[in-house]
């Protein structure tokens, strides 16, 4: 399953990311609610909280990305452990690819 999701690039100009061979690379994540990983939002306004700001003209930029969501699980925001994506989904016998805390947003896409 693919969807268009939004990604804030923090202090990195978006052009550096979309012109690179690596693209969005989770090893550059310095913080996050669920630990290291690439974070995406269903609403662009949420990603504006971590957007790149061009100071000279006060323009905020985020990336709109085509994301393969894969096999996902839900997780409470208060649970900061990352083990749940390493667990095996009993229905598929595969590990999870993604974590969401908004199951309603996932259901709205289906």
From TrEMBL:
Protein name (record): PARP catalytic domain-containing protein
Q: Which SUPFAM superfamilies match?
A: ADP-ribosylation
Q: Which InterPro entries match?
A: Poly(ADP-ribose)pol_cat_dom
The entry lists its GO molecular-function terms as:
NAD+ poly-ADP-ribosyltransferase activity
Q: Which organism is it from?
A: Euplotes crassus
Query: In the record, what lineage is assigned to the organism producing the protein?
Result: Eukaryota, Sar, Alveolata, Ciliophora, Intramacronucleata
Query: Which ranges carry the PARP catalytic domain?
Result: 1-110
């Amino acid at each position: 399953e693919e969807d268009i999701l939004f990604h804030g690039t923090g202090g990195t100009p978006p052009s550096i990311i979309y012109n690179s061979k690596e693209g969005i690379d989770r090893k550059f994540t310095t913080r996050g609610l669920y630990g290291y990983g690439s974070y995406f939002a269903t609403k662009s306004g949420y990603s504006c909280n971590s957007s790149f700001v061009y100071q000279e003209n006060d323009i905020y930029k985020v990336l709109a990305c085509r994301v393969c969501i894969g096999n996902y699980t839900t997780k409470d925001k208060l649970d900061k452990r990352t083990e749940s994506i390493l667990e095996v989904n009993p229905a598929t016998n595969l590990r999870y690819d993604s974590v969401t805390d908004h199951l309603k947003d996932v259901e709205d896409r289906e």
